[in-house]
Design goal:
The complex is a heterodimer of chains A (87) and B (418). Chain A has 87 residues and is mainly α. Chain A is 47% helix and 0% strand. Chain A has one domain (4-81): ACP-like (Non-ribosomal Peptide Synthetase Peptidyl Carrier Protein, Chain A, Orthogonal Bundle). With 418 residues, chain B is an alpha/beta fold. Helix content of chain B is 35%, strand content 17%. In chain B, helix 3 (50-60) packs across helix 4 and helix 7 packs across helix 13.
């Protein structure tokens, strides 16, 4: 079963293609804000969610979009969806 | 200049094919499967070039080919004009440069996908790039994204005159002092959904599905409709002082032009040009560019392989007051690439400039027998069947006509000090 760190790595892998500032990407952390800190186009959040859904075979409700700011937010949603206990 | 065409991608390949009169028209099996009357067309053959990889790396994978073609042609044009493509890591915004790119139909290839997904109640799966991949200003907007253009960005449309209108609008913006340089041109994608309307109108030829390269036959007595095409042409227009000060290679001078409509009255309609409007357009272009009728050495015709070709020749003759062996040289690139709708005026302008610079007139393919009405107006040697060397082409008249009874005339000249 996938652990917290593995989930984060997978999420990073999905999101990397939406980043166009290598310097900011290299400095990313779990708590980094996807739009403000990474400079990713805010419109791309919907694409990130679709990619996450397809990768993990889960469905993320549109209402959850508003609560997603950091990488960790996505990891936490995934853990809930996949029935993994929160760390 | 940069070009993505059915006979070649890049100026060198394009010019070689044009000079050698290579046809870019082929049979399209998808059109046959869909039961089209016209199953032939011109579609650029794209390779996975470094430029295409650059577009894909910049969120353009899945974009309308209208945008892909325009961006590829735009990158070529930018480099050929002596500029660097610095990439998105650069923070420099070029406030002196804008882009005006025309399209006739727009992103019909992507709209087909939007309709399908919408009908399946899956709009969410269209993803966030769907608008930037399909909007009419997509070519100019994405060129700005790639090159950091900070002046005006426009997508313009006047059907089959879009490319020429975009060139004229860019010229006017520079002349007004609002920009130093403008990327201008046109782009059109291949899509059965874009071409279906022409098939319904029966304005495309249905007689050459088994002989595609013979389908586009401008100025002949047996032309039976145009052959649809796709691609893009982009030119960098620049203020003379700006180009000179940076030591740019100046290809020629756009002396001026005119755009009008015949008003869809008298002998014209929505789909056929009014003679009076065409003649007025040519004369206003001459006046505006301070060009004498006898200065025109070569006309790059609209000549789309329809019944209107003979009317076009007659209108040119009346506008210039020239006929017989005093008629300027004339040809039709559409015999090689088909009718690229909103891109046609731009690709043909590029072709015209290359011929002016190279001292030749490419032959009009399939022109074995000139239309009898045309042969009465001009000496047929002025509409060559094979490519010929012509020294001293100093002034070119480029014509485009479009639904809406719209006309555009552009006048390119070699630089005075050449």
């Amino acid at each position: 079963m996938m652990n917290d760190e593995q989930l984060l790595k997978e999420v990073w892998e999905i999101i990397e293609k939406y980043s166009f500032d290598q310097g900011k990407w290299d400095k990313r952390s779990r708590k980094a804000r996807i739009i403000q800190d990474l400079g990713i186009n805010s419109a791309r959040v919907v694409d990130i969610i679709i990619d996450v859904e397809e990768k993990f075979d889960v469905e993320i409700e549109d209402e959850s979009l508003e609560s997603i700011s950091t990488f960790n937010d996505i990891v936490e949603i995934l853990k809930k969806k996949m029935g993994l206990s929160s760390s | 200049m940069g070009v993505v065409s059915p006979i070649g991608v890049g100026i060198k390949a394009f010019e070689e094919a044009m000079k050698g009169m290579k046809s870019g028209i082929s049979h399209i099996s998808e059109l046959e499967e869909l039961g089209f009357g016209c199953q032939i067309g011109g579609v650029p053959n794209l390779e996975l070039s470094e430029d295409l990889k650059y577009l894909y790396a910049n969120e353009l994978q899945g974009a309308s080919m209208m945008i892909i073609y325009a961006c590829l042609a735009g990158l070529q044009a930018w480099r050929n004009a002596g500029f660097m493509v610095e990439g998105r890591a650069s923070t420099f915004v070029d406030i002196d440069t804008g882009a005006i790119i025309g399209t006739g139909i727009g992103a019909s290839d992507i709209f087909a996908k939007i309709v399908r997904q919408t009908d399946l109640k899956q709009t969410r799966k269209l993803r966030s790039t769907i608008i930037e991949h399909s909007m009419t200003s997509g070519p100019s907007a994405n060129l700005s994204k790639l090159l950091g253009l900070g002046n005006q960005l426009l997508g313009v449309s006047s059907a089959c005159a879009s490319g020429s209108d975009a060139i004229l609008m860019g010229y006017q913006r520079i002349r007004a002092g609002f920009a130093k340089r403008m990327l201008v041109g046109g782009a059109e994608c291949y899509s059965p959904y874009g071409w279906a309307g022409f098939d319904a109108m029966r304005v495309t030829t249905r007689k050459y599905n088994d002989n595609p390269t013979q389908g586009s036959r401008p100025m002949t007595g047996n032309s039976s409709g145009f052959v649809p095409g796709s691609g893009s042409g982009v030119l960098v227009l620049e203020d003379y002082d700006s180009a000179q000060s940076r030591g740019a290679q100046i290809l020629c001078e756009l002396k001026g032009g005119w755009s009008n409509s015949g008003g869809q009255r008298n002998d014209g309609s929505m789909t056929a040009p009014t003679s009076r409007g065409v003649i007025a357009c040519i004369r206003k272009a001459l006046l505006e560019s301070n060009t004498n009728v006898n200065e025109i050495d070569y006309v790059s015709g609209h000549l789309s392989s329809t019944f209107a070709d003979a009317n076009e020749i007659s209108n040119i003759s009346q506008a210039l007051g020239r006929s017989g062996d005093s008629f300027p040289y004339i040809n039709s690139l559409k015999s090689l690439i088909g009718h690229c709708i909103g891109a046609t005026g731009a690709i043909e302008s590029i072709a015209a400039i290359l011929q002016m610079k190279g001292g030749y007139i490419h032959g009009t393919l399939n022109l074995k027998e000139t239309h009898s009405r045309i042969a009465k107006v001009l000496d047929t040697r002025k509409a060559p069947r094979d490519t010929i060397v012509v020294q001293g082409i100093n002034s070119v008249l480029k014509l485009s006509f479009a639904f809406g009874d719209s006309n555009v005339a552009l006048i390119f000249k070699v630089l005075d000090d050449e």
